[in-house]
Known about the structure:
Ferritin; 5 helices; mainly alpha; binds MU-OXO-diiron
Amino acid sequence: MLKPEMIKKLNEQVTAEMYASNLYLQMSAWCEDQGLSGAAAFFRQHVPEELAHRDKIIDYLIECDAPVTVGAVDAPPTEFKSLVEVINKAFEHELKVTAMIHDLAEMALDSKDFNTFNMLQFFIAEQREEEVLFRGILDQVKLIAFKGETGEAMYLINQFLQRSAQAHPH
Ligand code: FEO
């Protein structure tokens, strides 16, 4: 039996994963609008990935015979100053999700809820992978001193994101 507080937090995580999916969808659409098809493909690829995270938690709640309550999802931002801002915001969002997952894991351990702790291992590994990915992109951004301006640096980052999308098909 899952504890009520854990059920509440897992349902909040379901909403957070849906928000992440919508955020990446909006980022992808913004990139598309700027003619950045590589960056758009990269962010679009994250949309189903986040929905798969949502489903994993929902399936776990169902397995535990715990109620699933699908909450309201806030609208993501629609305007961005530059591609650099988009990348930074995506990275910040992943850090926020990591913190949420770590809180859940801590709560599971504290209450000796080892099944939930075990389920969360997937998310802990996944978040580490996401952070490594975004840090790698930010390293490239720094490497070519990209500030979001149109030109060769923008072209290179777009290409890099295109290759990254092709290298990590999910
Ligand atoms: Fe569901 Fe990108 O973390």
